[in-house]
Amino acid sequence: GYKGKNVANSLRTWNWPDDKDLPSQVCFSNPEVRKYFAKEAVDAYNGKYTVGAISHAKKMPGKPFYYSMGEDDVGNICLCAECAKEKGTNPHWDGCAQLRWINGIAKEAAKLNPDVGIATWSYEHSLFYDKTIPLEKNVSVQVCIAPQSWFHPDVYRKQHGIYKEWIQNEGSKRPITVWT
Hints:
Layout: H1 12-15, H2 31-45, E1 65-68, H3 81-87, H4 93-112, E2 116-122, E3 139-144, H5 153-170, E4 176-179
Helix pairs in contact: 2-4
């Protein structure tokens, strides 16, 4: 449904400014998309840059490798039939879909190279810890809270609670970082 619309309002338009068929969001449901980004992460691990890649991550000797990955922060969703079917009437679909998509990329990356991890964020729609989505062991999460507003007791209680829930449930299984 994107042909000729050039609806992308993202960093992808910087790499492909003349492509009028760019979608407004990456497809979460297509397995080939997961495989593409898994290969991109493995290529980065091996020192090869992929055109269109946001991250210029390089393997540091003696350190675990996590390639950053996330959907565009534009509030759009993929318009394909499969994503529409998955979404249904679930108001939290995009947060769940993003984590399932990251899991799929991480699983594919591990098949290609078990030393490659995928780093993502819990942000806005995916901020809250979701126990129904067990994360792959090679996923790292950055909790994106707003510590600059912690002076407000309600904001502090909510955001610190979210952070603690991530740490309690995932802190011993994977790197959990905080975006500030």
